[in-house]
Amino acid sequence: MVNPLLEPSPLPYGLPPFRELTDGHYAEAVRAGLAEHLAEIEAITSSPEPADFENTAVAMERSGRLLERAMAAFSTLVSSHATPEIRALETELMPALSAHDDAIHLNRALHARFAAIGTDGLDPESARLVSEWLAAFRRAGVALDDAGQARLREINTELSRLGTEYGQRVAAAINEAAILVTDEAELAGMSDDDRAAAAEAAREAGHASGWLVTFIQPTSQPLLAVLEDRGLRRRIFEASVTRGSSGGSTDVTELAAQMARLRAEKAALLGYADFAELAVDDQTAPSISAVRGMLSRLAPAAVRNAHAEAAALAEEAGHELEPWDWAYYSARVHRARHSVDEQALRAYFELDRVLRDGVFYAAGELYGLRFEERPDLAGYHEDVRVWEVLDADGSGLGLFLGDYFARGTKRGGAWMNSLVEQSGLLGHRPVVVNNLNVPKPPPGEPALLTLDELRTVFHEFGHALHGLLSEVQYPRFSGTNVPRDFVEYPSQVNEMWMLWPEVVANYARHHATGEPLAAEELDRLEAAKLWGEGFATTEYLGAALLDLAWHGLPAGEDPGAVADFESRALEAAGVALPLVPPRYRTGYFQHIFAGGWYAAGYWSYIWSEVLDADTVEWFRENGGLTRGNGEAFRRELLSRGCSRDPLDSFRALRGRDADVAHLIARRGLG
Fold first, then answer.
1. Under 8 Å between Cβ of 52 and 117
2. Which fold has domain 4-143?
3. Which residues of the chain have pLDDT under 70?
4. What's the pLDDT score for residue 596?
5. Looking at the domain that runs over 253-340+531-602, which CATH code has it been given?
6. Is 495 a catalytic residue?
7. Edge to edge, what strands does the sheet with 385-390 contain?
8. CB 324 within 8 A of CB 237
9. pLDDT of 597
10. From CA 386, how far away is CA 355, in angstroms rounded?
């Protein structure tokens, strides 16, 4: 059988033909793609013609199509459906992919051709393409001598290997942490649908009976807010915070320390004080000192609010508060003070209806989009659903895939990725995927979302819109290919529609009775929106500052024992609250150690939120959910990708730079 990945997919929009693919196809296509891409680059660098925009920059944008096609499909499986065979293949291929990246960005001949192009007479997007390639060469180390490049290649290969192993161990640890409950009395407080999902999870894991408490990626686990049994809450909390750091085959602490040391050496080799300084070099933030300054400004107010919340919780509890008590008594105080019962609200947030009448509805009102489910098109797993996205004029825009349920082969957390990136040059229209980890209900039962899961559905769809509405020429600039501290901005803006009155009235109906969510419930949620911000901001800052501590190490410094390093880092940053552990600890901080996309950059969520909070005010000032507002946001921001400076896109929309006051007010940090 001919490998389907070796040729462009015949399916609509280039959707990979997952039904026809085997593990061997991925391996063959990736290896063939690596060889083909190197041959294409050799043809560019060995050309006797003088370098110009077409024969160098455009040729590079056209190159690597087979590798991109193979890796888009394969990397989707690595994160979303990593069977043992796929994990083994990942371990085998990732060092080769790292070496391939170095073969491009450390290629002096290729760099010389880009440097010879010049930008006179080029349109702005084309000129930006040349300058961005040159900046990427510089940051990658193209100017290093032979010895420096050789060492850099070694470091990058080892970081790739360690990051892959870290990610695989973390995925195993999240499954290993699951707690089997055999006494139903321990489940007091858990809703019927959660019990049914836990029983189904136990059966799928091979248990004859009982209820399996599964875990999500962050420290805080949803069931801590409802379980009455304090002993079970403690078991869940302790299993959560010790993931990846308690010894055994899933311990990742030494891997993390090794990566931190290697990244420090890499930064020094490239002329930076530390890896944090290197990481911020291609972001919208002006400097790492500016980032640290913002976090330092926010931390004291967040901690002060967290202490005030802790006092209220201790009073409610009537005993000494422990970390596993926080979510439970916070929910009780929330109900008592604001009459908000988040567990009761879940009955109004049924996944299918949220998607159809909430997420898709808002996109229709803002951008004129329509979504038609395509059961004839298959994803990479039976849980994956496919929708064709139609623009306001009825033309096909792309495909949206939704993969919402947790399973043992999927990594924790939630994310968006692209299977096909939009490009005018290549004639590609986008195919994007959203992943969540909602517990899968038994067959025939509804999937009811928590407020946090509801927010995540809207958030990840904001990333999807960024990919779907892209209108750029060059694939390098498509969709979410923007600086890390900008990429979360459009997705955070999309969260605003979750409880927008017109949107919530359209989707929030009781899954059994059809009764709409009462308007007064929305009023109560609005009145209570600052409750818990002390905890939320402090746990976030704990993770962001821990990330910067790891990546602020100078070359050659040994961090010592990981637990001690964490304690010192949090204490020095002023966020060492035993009751409020960081949102992620070293043992499961996948964002910064597995692949490293957010290494020295977890702060970018709150940096993006400055833009987000300001933009939410812009929508409110201009009438909210209107086609005019949606078209302006699409035209000036979502469609632009990185084809111009992202902050210029923000200024084009807002007419000025962002004002941090809106973020401070939102989080109650004034």
1. yes
2. Glutathione S-transferase Yfyf (Class Pi); Chain A, domain 2 (1.20.1050)
3. none
4. 79
5. 1.10.1370.10
6. no
7. 370-373, 385-390, 396-405, 431-438, 415-420
8. yes
9. 87
10. 12
